[in-house]
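Support case: adenosine-5'-diphosphate complex. Customer-provided input:
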Amino acid sequence: MGYGAGGWLAKLGMVDFAGSTVVHSLGGWVSLAGIIVLGPRIDRYNKDGTLNPIPGHNIPLAALGVFIMWLGWFGFNTGSLLSGTNLAIAIIAVNTILSAVSGSISVMVCTWIREGKPNVKLTLNGVLAGLVTSTATSALVSPFLCIIIGAIGGIILIIGERLFEKLRLDDVVGAISVHGINGIWGTLAVGLFAQSQFSQNSLGLSINGLFFGGGIKLLAIQALGVVAVFGWSFGVAMGAFKFIDKTVGLRVTEEDEIKGLDYSEHLMSSYPLFDEFQQKQDLIFNELKRVQELSVLHEISQSMHSLNLDEILNLILRGVTQSIGFERARLYLINEKENSLECKMAVGIEEEKIKTITLSLNDAQSIMARVVLEKKDFVINDAKKDPRVNPNLKKLFNLRSFVAVPLQGRDRIMGAVSADYIYSDKVITKEKVDSLITFVNQAGLALENAKLYQELKLFNEKLEERVKKATEDLRKTQEHLIQSSRLSALGQLSAGVAHEIRNPLTSIRILFHSFREKIAPEDMRKDDIMVIENEIERINQIIQQFLDFARPSKPKKEKVDVNKLIEDTLLLVSYELNEQETEVKKDLLSLPAIMADREQLRQVFLNLIINAMQAMPEGGIVKISTMINNNNIRICFSDQGKGIPESIREKLFEPFFTTKEEGIGLGLSITKRIIDDHQGRIKVESNKGKGTIFSVILPCR
Ligand code: ADP
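Agent response - structure generated as follows:
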């Protein structure tokens, strides 16, 4: 086209001297198509759109390359003239060097202002930017204008590089900005600045740009050329690259990309020394990682005695993220009852989210279930499209690619661990997966040990508790046994004593009666005789109590009207009540007759009324109430006495327990036994200084 070979653009009058468009732009557009199909290099962009610099490995070499190209450009630009004897060669050579110099200086100054230091890499590209602009213009414009055009080329380069970075087009050496964009600029610059005085000499044609009286026509044709070449070359290149991508494949594997193409293409490195260093560094780095992993494992096994399960799970996940380097990790444990996997803990995800996650192990297609059932690791590259991944998980975690490995103990599977990257575009490499498997295997053993230890500890604690309780029960039973054997010995003794005393006492009573009858009414000893008679009666009662206690008779049950029995009993003590100025208040509700031993019940009521009276030596009120509740009769005796201290309440019903000077301590124990024989209960409530309530509860049968 530009060479006047008779193409349609050439016929229209497009001038592209040494090929700003046909060589450079075209190269740029093909590169553009290439990087679109290829995609950015691994790790070039972060998730948030920020850029990771991947600097060239050798700037002096890059500079040498630029200088070599610069030299070549002289040949290329000047050699584009058809005649070697044409003196315009001199101007072309001068323009070539001036464009390169001004392009590089403008970039150097711009980056100096922008970054505070001149950017060497961009400045080198500035040389090329200037040279690309000179390709079309060097034969057609004055040296001065070439300086201007080259300088503008430098600025365009900076803008272009920025633009492609923003568009996430990974233009590794800046080829599209240098060749594509500056190719356009060089081509258009012809339409703006071409001067016939230079074109006459070089090309033998009279060409004037917009600023030199040539009008807009040339500029328009140049622009048409730019668009036409873009459309053609970009379209064809795009098709070609896509075809290659789909058929043989355009991009190398991730592994090759990370290792470097020197290895995959040639099985060697350009920098053996550097490689050796790198290998050593990797070795040390891996060792360090291993030490880090081991220290986490060590921490787990050390702390299993002191930490709870949650803290251990947390340690494992910390190992997966901090030591192995994943950005997120989740730990699932099997719930055997539900046959499901429950997410117990996660790092890099809000706690609230994980609580809801339960994955059924019945769904044999699901990835997490397969990890557990097949005890195999899985790497999922595109979770969003993978039907084997639980849709809930995809949504909750915004899953892209992740790895999941089984968490195993010595001979049982306990759950699974999954991990991924979310903040960066990092790829899950085989090395990472291997590290994860090794780590999780070790962690599984440690976790199992910790679990066993804790189960053992719990079992021990329970055992200790049970031993304690059993010892306590034994002690109580033993005490009870001692107590009851002591009581039965005491009972037998008192029964023997009572029996022995009773016979002579009966003779004394009979003889005393006949003796008393013989005493004349005016006898001075009458009072003494009364005292003797009372004392004999008291001894008789005590003996009776002893006998009641030692040889309880079986209750002879008959129909008893409890209210009436209370009234009858009160008659027995009416004299004493009067004497002591004690008032009895009754609240007797109508009751059904119950089956009971009348005499035994009378003894119960009598004991309780007498105790109430004795609690109020100065007199007071004894309240007696009856009621029926839930098929039980409740009879309450309350007094306003001094009350019963808490400390002796347990002993009240023990035989021979008394706090009274003249008491025997059998009243309540006999009372309780009678009530027990009637399948009833007796309860005591007491308020110190305010009084006591004894409640007798008897079944209505
Ligand atoms: P005794 O009346 O011979 O002492 P009891 O078995 O009837 O034997 O009573 C045992 C003890 O219970 C009494 O000594 C007394 O300390 C206490 N007690 C019983 N009833 C009352 C009561 N209504 N108020 C205060 N203490 C009482």
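The mean pLDDT is 89.

Case will auto-close in a few days if no follow-up is received.
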